[in-house]
Amino acid sequence: MDSPFPHPEHALALYRTMARIRAFENAAEIASQGGVSAYGQQATGTVRVRGPLHLSTGQEAVPAGVCAHLKPADYLTSTHRGHGHTLAKGADLGRMMAELFGKATGFNGGKGGSMHIADFSVGMLGANGVVAAGLPIAVGAAHAQKLQRREAITVCFFGDGAINRGPFLESLNWAQVYRLPVLFVCEDNRWSATTASGPMTAGDGASARAEALGIAATQVDGNDVFAVHATAARLVDEVRSGNGPRLLHALTYRVKGHVSVDPAAYRDPAELAAALATDPLARARTACTRAGLTAAAIDAIDAEAHAEVEAALAAAAAAPWPDAAAAFTDIQTTGAGQWH
Amino acid sequence: MALSIDTTTELSYAEAAVLALQREMEADPNVVVIGEDVGRGGIFGQYKGLQQRFGDQRVIDTPISEAAIMGAGVGMALAGLRPVVEMRVVDFALCGMDELVNQAAKNRFMFGGQGRVPLVARMPGGIWDASAAQHSQSLEAWFAHMPGLVVVSPSTAQDNYSLLRSALQCGDPVVYIEHKGLWGARGPVDESVAVALGQAARLRTGDALTLVTWGKQVHACSEACDALARQGVSVDLIDLRTLWPWDRDTVLASCGRTRRLLVVHEAVQAAGFGAEIAATAAEATGCRIARLGAPRIPVGYAAVLEAQSRVSAAAIATAALQLLDQTVPA
Predict the structure, then answer these.
(1) How far apart are CA B252 and CA B188, in angstroms?
(2) Testing the interface with B: which of A147, A150, A182, A323 to mutate, by most B Cβ within 10 A?
(3) pLDDT over 70 at B2, yes or no
(4) Which residues from chain A sit within 8 angstroms of residue B198, using beta carbons?
(5) Partner residue opposite A144 with nearest CB, options B65, B67, B81
(6) What is the mean pLDDT of residues B254-261?
(7) Domains along chain B?
(8) How confident is the model over A158-169, as pLDDT tens digits?
């Protein structure tokens, strides 16, 4: 069942966030084909986006619905599948594309790429190449916020695969012991790389594990952006009010393979078809038009997002590479220059 | 323990660290301590009295969660704090390796210099008498291998005071390896003495050979130098103090003069940091080199087994004489 429809302005803003993520992921997917040797493919060496690229296509409703409630001072930690979180937190789309291209104008000056996207200026403390690695960093950041009596909170995105790593337990326990202002968001896309998460997970999953530690957990249809938005509003408010951590378990689906060159031939086509039938953008569009918004207004958002991404692709292609000397900067101050 | 002092006083290695922390915590409200048992002073007394002085919001007792302790330290540092991350012993720090190696060490570079991770991870190393294989390791070479990390190994109370302060001020992630066997070692501590990271200490001056070491092995090497002096062999003894960045200028200048280098460490000799120093010295100066470390065996429990991993003063003196093509006196 669909959730109550928000104010039309909010509805369109949520749709816009999702549309920008979708347009970005689609463009990045195309630009990355032949970019990495895996899944039977060989890297060509001539593509614009090199290396493994983890797409969040089909999962846009979760970051859009959650991050709508965040302020620039709030922190966010992300995963290897972090483009959506980054955009939803307010980071610049063009600089993210430039980073995927490895260009000097990217957020990290070309030092990180897709798996290490970060924009500290908007509180986005980094995607991460290691599953569950963002959780302890998030509780540390939230701990600092509490010790410094800031009003800000930390949101920690992670996947369903992460709940089987030790740092998940350590971090949830830590957050609850110190009553930290952190919202854990399990973005459950059902897949741990090329293995279904369900058969690899004992018990009742993320929510049950959180509740075992006394952390209130709420499950939501992660492909219904308005449901995510409404649920996250309550949880963010509770966390911001000093009630300690909360966990949001958002059920979604990874429409693409583990990385962009993974055809995901290992899964049942019927499962994918069922997931595509619940596509979050299509559902939001339907809800918007049902609420009286015009198709033209929504089409315009799609067109804007497409144009923004096209401009980002062109700018990234034209941008300079980093100087080779940049390989020797931002490593450490103590002992800088001693590389051998 | 008298902590309010202005001049040189005699302190233990542990007390010197407490004093350094006290001074840094007084100077900077962003310095916090996180770790197991720190509120009760730490298992070695290396945090004694600090929670009473600064409260439980700055000296924070934590669950036994090394990954979270180290990872939270990274998050705290990114958010503006300067955490002292207590790992209890270096052997337990292995439970927080992703957080140290993949996160703390790489954060600044990977994110293009957007953030820094000014944390000091204290992880006491070395043989802790009769504590066997999981509480007795010397793993400094692992960390010296990692771009982004500073690695410190003090051998005296004075250096523990001065280097811990430097470590907390430097702004980089620091692996701070105190020796489990030195906590009670007493020595003069002058609060006005600053020791820069990367600066070795030349403890003795000699012509016959250069002897480079660090940590508790400094004391065994000093003993060996006494024995060698009785045979007329004078040694340039260098306490490296910081393993990364290490003080090449001091070491290479000495090797250039003596033409012979012996590196001694408590860690397993194979792939130890002594190999790095010896190779560098040989490349740069053409000097003769020798290394002396533990055999590549786990540290045993029974005294006779444990002894096989110890590098004794007698073994050091023997290695020095062999390097000089002299025989060991009967």
Answers:
(1) 29
(2) A147
(3) no
(4) 334-335
(5) B81
(6) 98
(7) 9-189 (3.40.50.970), 201-323 (3.40.50.920)
(8) 999 999 999 999
- Are B67 and A129 inside 8 Å of each other by CB? no
Point out the residue among A110, A174, A332 whose CB comes nearest to the CB of B68.
A174
For residue B172, the chain A residues in CB contact (below 8 A) are: 332-334
Give domain status of residue A331, yes or no.
no
**Strands lying side by side in the sheet with B242-244:** B59-61, B31-35, B82-86, B120-122, B174-176, B150-152, B242-244
At a CB cut-off of 8 Å and minimum separation 6, what does A69 contact?
A229, A232, A233, A236, A237
The residue assigned the tokens 């002058």 is B190
Asked whether residue A329 is assigned to any structural domain, the reply reads: no
ipTM of this complex prediction, to 2 decimal places? 0.95
Residue A81 has, within 13 A of its CA and on its CB side, a CA count of: 32
Does residue A119 sit within a domain? yes
Q: Is B135 a catalytic residue?
A: yes
Encoded tokens for B287? 């000097």
First to last CA, chain A: 62
Is residue A149 domain-resident? yes
**Helix extents (H) in chain A:** 8-31, 61-67, 83-88, 93-100, 134-147, 166-177, 206-212, 225-240, 269-276, 280-290, 295-318
The half-sphere exposure of A209 on its side-chain side, counting CA atoms within 13 A, is: 23
Residue type, A155: V
Give the domain extent around A21: 8-319
End-to-end CA distance of chain B: 47
The DSSP annotation for B198-267 comes to T--EEEE--SSEEEEE-TTHHHHHHHHHHHHHHTT--EEEEE--EEES--HHHHHHHHHHHSEEEEEEEE
Residue in B closest to A103 by C-alpha: B112
| Sequence-ordered list of residues with C-beta below 8 angstroms from that of A127, at least 6 positions apart, any chain | A78, A79, A80, A81, A82, A85, A86, A114, A115, A116, A117, A118
Whether A255 and A263 have beta carbons less than 8 Å apart is answered as no
Number of domains composing chain A: 1
pLDDT tens digits for A4-28?
789 999 999 999 999 999 999 999 9
Those residues with Cβ within 8 angstroms of residue B27's Cβ, 6 or more apart along the chain or in another chain: none
Is the distance from CB of B42 to CB of B86 less than 8 angstroms?
yes
Tell whether B244 is within 8 A of chain A (Cβ): yes
Does B79 reach chain A within 8 Å, measured CB to CB? yes
Q: What's chain A's average pLDDT? A: 96
**Which of A208, A210, A218 minimizes the C-alpha distance to A174?**
A210
Nearest of A279, A298, A301 to residue A58 by alpha carbon: A279
Please answer yes or no on whether A141 and B114 come within 8 Å at the CB atom: no
- The two tokens of residue B34 are 């996180």
Does residue A107 sit at the B interface (CB-CB below 8 Å)?
Answer: yes
What CATH number corresponds to the domain at position A265?
A: 3.40.50.970
